[in-house]
Each structure stands twice: as C-alpha cells, then as structure tokens.
Write a structure and sequence with these properties.
By secondary structure, the protein is an alpha+beta fold. It has one domain (3-20, 39-188): Trefoil (Acidic Fibroblast Growth Factor, subunit A). Helix content is 17%, strand content 34%. The strands form 2 sheets. Strands 1, 2, 3, 4, 5, 6, 7, 8, 9, 13, 14, 15 and 16 form a 13-stranded antiparallel β-sheet that branches. A hairpin with a 5-residue loop joins β5 (73-79) and β6. The longest helix has 11 residues, at 3-13. Residues 1-28 have low confidence and may be disordered. The structure holds 2-acetamido-2-deoxy-beta-D-glucopyranose (8 copies). One 2-acetamido-2-deoxy-beta-D-glucopyranose binds at residues 53, 56, 121, 161, 163-164, 170. One 2-acetamido-2-deoxy-beta-D-glucopyranose (NAG) binds next to loops. Residues 1-20 form the signal peptide. Keywords: Signal.
Length: 199
C-alpha cells in the first residue's frame, strides 16, 4: 500500500471532515464487510447516502429523495470477490416511490468511467466488460472507499456536482468542470449521526 497516496487523497479531498474524525478512528475496523451503504463527505455535504437514479449514482438525503418525485432508490452494497462493489436496493431505507416499490436493478456493478471516457458520471452497470468503465479495484482504507489504480496507488477522485434539483448532487469521478459548485467528496461506509435529514 502506498500510504502517501492515501494521505494525499484524504487530506486533499476530504478536507476538515475526515481530519476531524481522525485516522485512528478509521483504522479501528476495515470498511466494506457484509452489506453496507456508502455516504459522501466533503464541504457542505456531511454524509449523504448514494442513490440509484436511472442507472446513475446521485447523493442526497432520505427526506429530499422521498419528496423529490423522482425514482431515487437507496443502495446497499456488498464487496464482490473480484474487487467490485455489488449494488442492490436497500429496501429498508425510509424512501418510497415507484422505483423502490419495484427496483429496476439487483446485484449491479458500481462503476466509474475509465480515464479515456469523456463522461464523468458514476453509476451502475451489468457485470460484463464494457470498453471504458471501471468496476473493479475497490478497496477500503479504514472506512474510506478507494480505487487501487493500475500503478498500485489508492485514489479517490469523487465529486458531487449539483444535479439541477435542489439538494441532489450527481456523483462524478475525475471531474474536469470544477468551476461551479462542484464539491470534492470521499465515500465512506459509515453514516453521519443525523442521517435522515442531514444535507
Ligand atoms: C417518506 O414518505 C412516506 C409517505 O409516503 C412517509 O411515511 C415517510 O415518513 C417519509 N420518509 C421520510 C424520510 O421523509
Ligand atoms: C408512479 O406511478 C404512477 C402510476 O403509474 C404515475 O402516475 C406517477 O407519475 C409515477 N411517479 C413517478 C415519480 O414516476
Ligand atoms: C462480477 O462477476 C465476478 C465473477 O463472476 C464476481 O466475482 C463479482 O462478485 C461480480 N460482481 C458483481 C457486482 O456482481
Ligand atoms: C438500509 O437503510 C437503513 C436505514 O437507513 C439502514 O439502517 C441500513 O443499515 C441500510 N442497509 C444497508 C445494507 O446499507
Ligand atoms: C436479487 O438477486 C439475488 C441473487 O443474487 C436473489 O436472491 C434475489 O431474490 C434478487 N432480488 C430481486 C428483487 O430480484
Ligand atoms: C483524469 O482525467 C485526465 C484527463 O482530464 C486523465 O488524463 C487522467 O488519466 C484521468 N485520471 C483517472 C484516474 O482517471
Ligand atoms: C463512459 O461512461 C459512461 C458512464 O459515465 C458509460 O455509460 C459509457 O458506456 C462509457 N463509454 C464507453 C465508451 O464505455
Ligand atoms: C445529473 O445526472 C442526470 C442523470 O444521469 C442527468 O440527466 C443530468 O444531466 C446530470 N446533471 C448534471 C448537471 O450533470
């Protein structure tokens, strides 16, 4: 493991939030065991869960998701044997809409676009090879989800980009349009204390 990359990712991207929680807390137990949710932390985003929206990954709070009129499905993950994150609907989360009643996905692969892909959108794809998305290489450092890149370094290049709907952000990777209100975030498997309404 390349510690300097981990700390670069943590200090560079997560800013105050992770620092405040401290590396000692995150070292106590490794994340990603069993079934877990992923929560985005960074800037004004203090731990918002990842949702499925028509194949894309977005982040918001449960209350906004419940009242948005969109088919946002809370996601439960498990670690696949090949370093993938398998995503299925979290049917016990307090969000109710047409898609949570009849979820349009099950055991789908969490993906990021590949380095050559002009799209930055993070989402969910079937477990088959596609030309320019990455579905494997996921690991945890403490409770922080990181990608092991081909040179062995552990990286996190997640961003939250305002979706156009208030308090809903698109999750992106290696964002180039950082001019507006895009916020660098890290994903952790630990929820904030006040999960339901937290934004
Ligand atoms: C979601 O909406 C249902 C009603 O459809 C309500 O019972 C529930 O409390 C709401 N949950 C949240 C988190 O607002
Ligand atoms: C849910 O389904 C009902 C009935 O088909 C439809 O009227 C409504 O617009 C749908 N809601 C959403 C958010 O798609
Ligand atoms: C994808 O397939 C591989 C090989 O069968 C398996 O190990 C992995 O768990 C699968 N990942 C998901 C997300 O279904
Ligand atoms: C599903 O959501 C509920 C409510 O937030 C939470 O308690 C539970 O841990 C989640 N399950 C998974 C597997 O993430
Ligand atoms: C999701 O897939 C699992 C097998 O991996 C299966 O046991 C379960 O019934 C499926 N759920 C739905 C809602 O299709
Ligand atoms: C990020 O995007 C740049 C181009 O904007 C590319 O050169 C680089 O390889 C990408 N990095 C990753 C890890 O995808
Ligand atoms: C690029 O990434 C998008 C999702 O962000 C994906 O739908 C598309 O298939 C990828 N392009 C290629 C050529 O694989
Ligand atoms: C956010 O994602 C949705 C669904 O993928 C897409 O339709 C929309 O254009 C995206 N918004 C921005 C600002 O990228």
């Amino acid at each position: 493991m390349h510690l300097k990359y981990i700390f670069a990712a943590v200090m560079g991207l997560a800013v105050g939030k992770l620092h405040a929680q401290g590396p000692s807390a995150s070292r106590k137990a490794k994340g990603g065991t069993g079934s877990f949710s992923l929560f985005a932390y960074g800037g004004e985003i203090g731990g918002l869960p990842v949702f499925f929206l028509n194949g894309a990954a977005v982040i918001t709070d449960f209350k906004t998701a419940n009242n948005s009129g969109s088919n946002l499905v809370p996601v439960a993950f498990t670690s696949g044997g090949d370093g993938s994150f398998s995503a299925s609907p979290n049917t016990t989360a307090p969000v109710f809409n047409n898609a949570t009643a009849s979820p349009p996905f099950n055991n789908t692969c969490f993906f990021i676009p590949g380095a050559g892909n002009s799209s930055h959108e993070v989402g969910f794809a079937s477990n088959s090879t596609s030309t320019d998305i990455i579905t494997t290489g996921w690991t945890f450092y403490g409770h922080i989800a990181l990608l092991e890149s081909t040179d062995g370094s552990l990286i996190s290049l997640f961003w939250a980009v305002p979706s156009g709907t208030d308090r809903v952000w698109n999750l992106t990777w290696n964002e180039t349009d950082t001019s507006d209100s895009a916020i660098p975030v890290t994903l952790k498997d630990t929820p904030p204390p006040n999960l339901v309404t937290k934004a």
